[in-house]
Amino acid sequence: MTTTDASPARRGSAAATAGTLLTKVPEATALFWFTKILTTGVGETTSDWIGRSPLVVPLAVLALAALIGSLVAQLRADRYRPWIYWSAVTMVSVFGTMAADVWRVALGLSYVASTLAFVVAVAAILALWHRSEGTLSIHSITTRRRELFYWSTVMATFALGTATGDLFASSFHLGYWKPGVVFGVLILLPWLAHARLGLNGVAAFWTAYVLTRPLGASFSDWAAVEHERGGLGFGPGAVSLVLFGVIGLTMALGHSRADRSEGDVEVAAA
Question: Considering the entire predicted model, what is its pTM?
Answer without folding.
Answer: 0.83
